[in-house]
Specification:
With 519 residues, this protein is an alpha/beta fold. It is 34% helix and 18% strand.
């Protein structure tokens, strides 16, 4: 059996693994990264999803919020992120009106609030998001530093009332005490629900943690479009890692590892062993337990979304004739995400049924960055849409019913979308070279199968606060950087690390810093 050694072995070639590999190789470490697929990038990849259609869609992850400029600068990455003009558009169900939040025009936004009966929420909206901006300015700069304690983080925020409203009590209480309009309440709540199956009043505060990460990204809370698609991000990371001297092995599936740093993997049908001083695992903690041969130390994670990619010949017409489709789809397009609708959908899914209507939100990459389309598609006015449906938990699926449920969920997304459009989305869907409609749906089971994210959970498990409790142990570099496991030589470097989740590179950066600090 072939045996080799390295200073660091990284299990999993997603964006976090590539970030860690680049930092460590640039620091002079010998680094071997093992990826079971035939390409690196994990969930942050682009693909030609529709046969014969020259468009490279961001197949899984689609927006960037938490990737610090510091990582881009330190790794000398050629990555461009495009800011979206509009924050969101939300149709008022059953009407021809909608709420358009224009980040460049406060007066126009106020008029839009009034048009949906939410004039009283204009001032609270501004005050609330001034508060989240305070959180972002205080907490985002800390995510690339050793962990703060809870008390230190609270002092950094400097506003006890703000802290309590986001960190100490269920987010639903804060939303209900701040806003009166159901539609406005729903728009705010969605940031607590992306990939997260909880109600507004969840006592575990899982929704609060999800909400916090959504509003602090980049120090502003903006979610940006990666120019060239997600594949451009991880392609640039792979280039940087390789040029720094890291060895990136694809088609290398890890079978097991030991606390002593021995990693067994299979590559091209041949079993191999590599031993390292440190093993960084860019997989879910639940998967790590399996690789170590241990019983799971926590419940199996559960994702709660269905992802649908669409290719359109043009943007669809809206019922609201006062809003241009390019404006409505220029930010996040919320569908059937009123506050009461979100609770009803949670209740339906909890009872084992697909919500109707299915709350969903849409992102149009090509309005901000048409470069993912061929010149011909651009000239013809084509666009991509990504739909991310909420409250579609993994518990609704089994290996036996996945194909059937994929079709059911896809139709639920189409029906939800059609309920707020002036024309059926099917009328503007392109067809591929085989004559099939250009629509692709990924369930939680599909995501687990493709990416080994248990339960299709896009965060690898429950999100954690970006700080630790005051009595937490911070005696080792791994603990201080939030990447510790039960074994000294094994560190988390993916979304399952503290401050992990989303396309951020934070898990990779912080694991690399822990390794370098321990030397």
């Amino acid at each position: 059996m072939e045996h080799s050694t390295a200073d660091v072995v990284i299990v999993g070639g997603g964006h976090n693994g590539l970030v860690a590999a680049t930092y460590l190789a640039q620091a002079g470490k010998t680094v071997t990264l093992l990826e079971r697929l035939d390409h690196v990038g994990g969930a942050a990849v682009s693909a030609e999803a529709f046969y014969g259609v020259d468009a490279r869609l961001s197949r899984y992850s689609y927006l960037v919020s938490l990737l610090p400029e510091r990582i881009i600068r330190e790794l000398r990455l050629d990555i461009r992120l495009e800011r979206r003009r509009y924050a969101s558009y939300t149709p008022l169900p059953g009407t021809d009106r909608g709420l358009l939040v224009d980040t460049a025009d406060a007066d126009a936004t106020a008029v839009s609030f009034a048009s949906v009966g939410a004039a009283d929420d204009v001032a609270p909206w501004r005050e609330f998001y001034e508060g989240t901006a305070t959180l972002a300015r205080a907490l985002f700069p800390t995510v690339c530093e050793p962990l703060l304690t809870r008390s230190e983080a609270k002092r950094a925020v400097g506003d006890d009332s703000l802290w309590d409203s986001i960190v100490e009590r269920p987010i639903g209480e804060t939303i209900e005490s701040t806003f009166s309009n159901d539609l406005v309440r729903g728009v705010v709540l969605t940031d607590a629900l992306i990939g997260n199956f909880v109600s507004a009043h969840d006592e575990s505060l899982a929704g609060n943690r999800c909400f916090l990460y959504h509003v602090i990204g980049g120090g502003t809370g903006d979610w940006d479009v990666p120019v060239g698609g997600m594949g451009a991000v991880t392609g640039e990371l792979a280039r940087a890692a390789s040029e720094a001297g890291a060895t990136l092995l694809t088609n290398a599936e890890v079978a097991s590892l030991t606390p002593e740093g021995e990693v067994r993997y299979v590559m091209h049908g041949k079993e191999r062993v590599i031993t390292a001083d440190r093993v960084l695992v860019n997989v879910a903690p639940y998967v790590l337990d399996s690789l170590l041969g241990n019983a799971a130390s926590a419940p199996r994670p559960e994702g709660a979304q269905v992802k649908v990619n669409l290719m359109l010949s043009r943007l669809p017409r809206l019922r609201d004739e006062n809003i241009e489709p390019a404006a409505a789809f220029g930010g996040t397009f919320h569908i059937n995400e009123g506050y009461a609708q979100l609770q009803a959908a949670f209740d339906a899914a909890s009872a084992g049924t697909v919500p109707s209507p299915l709350p969903s939100e849409i992102y149009c990459h090509t309005l901000a960055d048409p470069s993912i389309l061929s010149p011909e598609l651009q000239a013809n006015g084509a666009h991509t849409l990504t739909v991310f449906a909420l409250h579609a938990p993994d518990r609704l699926l089994t290996p036996e019913n996945n194909d059937e449920m994929r079709a059911v969920l896809q139709q639920a997304v189409v029906d939800s979308l059609n309920s707020v459009l002036a024309e059926p989305i099917e009328d503007v869907l392109m067809r591929d070279s085989d004559g099939n409609l250009c629509i692709e749906t990924k369930t939680t089971l599909d995501i687990e199968e493709a990416l080994r994210m248990p339960g299709g959970n896009i965060f690898h498990g429950p999100l954690s606060w970006p700080f630790v409790e005051d009595d937490a142990s911070l005696s080792t570099p791994a603990e201080r950087w939030g990447v510790a496991t039960a074994h000294e030589r094994i560190l988390l470097c993916g979304s399952g690390a503290r401050r992990g989740g989303a396309v951020s590179g934070l898990g990779g950066h912080n694991a690399a810093m822990a390794v370098l600090e321990s030397q």
